[in-house]
């Protein structure tokens, strides 16, 4: 088994990864402000709003001929599933974890998705990463384990949500890559139908749980201020941008690299979150674990995006001297 061939240039790979990283940073902070600081009660409704915004914006863009994707037909569900299922579970568990866990620990625990992605890539896409990538992944996972053991603000429910999130992040990334490789829907079709098929289960969850009642009480108590409304709308827009950047990054890179972009951009989120979110409890052991994980992120970045020189041709060159120029007698 060999590593996946590099069919894209370095520039689109790096720019798509940076775009995804920036989008991910933005939505983490927006969601954290909305769900924790402004105390919006339902992360399920936030996820539903993000998917509805994606469907609406892509539908309008397709009508205006800005983008194009295949029309809905009987074969579409076969082409897209089980991706919407992974996507919705990834979205809901991620938003729930964002609400329950402080930002530094959220970003550290999310690194476990890297190991799962590497395993899923091996069995589903038949891709095996090089040794240096395995070492960097080990450092990220080991640092996460150390940080998690000494997390003074431990939340069992939040930790469970994050570990579920890790499983479905890995599954989602690998199946996005697999669907893109099939070239049946294209990235716009994948994004549109994925969000479209996610809406019914999200609306069912809202209807048959207390999520809608939580929002009603929140509004009735006068908490739905203009700041909350603006932040909710911004979160919906950021959800569309994030989903587009994720699909684009996965198109140009491996599913493992897309998964690793999250922890790499969390170099920024981790340290800022220690001071901005107000829910991080400092301890030296936890801080050490975070930094070990960060070191692994830096190593992975170097190994993945370093410029590789073309291999030297090992064919032996033999210089032949013309017969007329050879000396007939030894000197």
Q: Mind explaining what this structure looks like?
A:
With 331 residues, the protein is an all-alpha fold. It has 13 helices and no strands. It has helices spanning 10-37, 43-63, 76-80, 83-100, 103-109, 112-125, 131-149, 156-182, 186-207, 211-220, 226-252, 255-276, 284-305. Helix 8 packs across helix 11. The longest helix has 28 residues, at 10-37. The chain is globular. Mean pLDDT is 78; it is low at 307-331.
List the helices and strands and how they pair.
Layout: H1 10-37, H2 43-63, H3 76-80, H4 83-100, H5 103-109, H6 112-125, H7 131-149, H8 156-182, H9 186-207, H10 211-220, H11 226-252, H12 255-276, H13 284-305
Organism: Panagrolaimus sp. ES5
Protein name: Sugar phosphate transporter domain-containing protein
What attributes characterize this protein structure?
single chain, 331 residues, mainly alpha, 13 helices, globular, disordered C terminus
- N/C terminus separation: 56 Å
Overall form: globular
β-strand number: 0
Name the beta content range: under 5%
Rg from alpha-carbon coordinates: 24 Å
Order of helices and strands: HHHHHHHHHHHHH
Number of helices: 13
- Low-confidence region ranges: 307-331
């Amino acid at each position: 088994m060999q590593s996946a061939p590099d069919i894209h240039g370095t520039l689109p790979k790096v720019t798509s990864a940076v775009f995804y990283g920036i989008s991910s940073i933005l939505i983490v902070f927006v969601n954290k402000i909305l769900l924790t600081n402004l105390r919006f009660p339902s992360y399920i409704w936030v996820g539903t709003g993000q998917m509805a915004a994606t469907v609406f914006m892509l539908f309008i863009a397709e009508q205006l001929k800005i983008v194009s994707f295949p029309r809905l037909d009987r074969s579409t569900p076969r082409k897209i599933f089980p991706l919407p299922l992974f996507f919705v579970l990834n979205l809901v568990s991620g938003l729930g974890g964002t609400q329950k866990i402080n930002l530094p620990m959220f970003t550290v625990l999310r690194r476990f998705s890297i190991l799962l992605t590497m395993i899923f890539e091996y069995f589903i896409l038949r891709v095996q990463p090089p040794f240096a990538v395995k070492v960097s992944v080990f450092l990220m996972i080991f640092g996460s384990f150390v940080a998690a053991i000494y997390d003074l603000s431990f939340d069992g429910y939040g930790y469970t949500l994050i570990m579920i999130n890790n499983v479905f992040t890995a599954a989602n990334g690998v199946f996005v890559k697999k669907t893109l490789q099939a070239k049946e829907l294209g990235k716009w079709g994948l994004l549109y139908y994925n969000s479209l098929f996610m809406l019914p289960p999200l609306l069912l969850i809202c209807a048959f749980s207390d999520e809608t009642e939580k929002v009603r009480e929140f509004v009735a108590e006068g908490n739905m201020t203009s700041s909350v409304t603006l932040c909710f709308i911004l979160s919906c827009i950021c959800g569309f941008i994030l989903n587009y950047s994720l699909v684009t990054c996965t198109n140009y890179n491996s599913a493992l690299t897309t998964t690793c972009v999250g922890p790499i951009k969390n170099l920024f989120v981790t340290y800022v979150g220690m001071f901005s979110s107000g829910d991080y409890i400092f301890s030296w052991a936890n801080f050490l674990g975070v930094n070990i994980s960060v070191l692994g992120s830096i190593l992975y970045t170097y190994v993945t995006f370093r410029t590789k020189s073309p291999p030297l041709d090992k064919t032996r060159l033999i210089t032949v001297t013309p017969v007329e120029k050879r000396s007939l007698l030894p000197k």
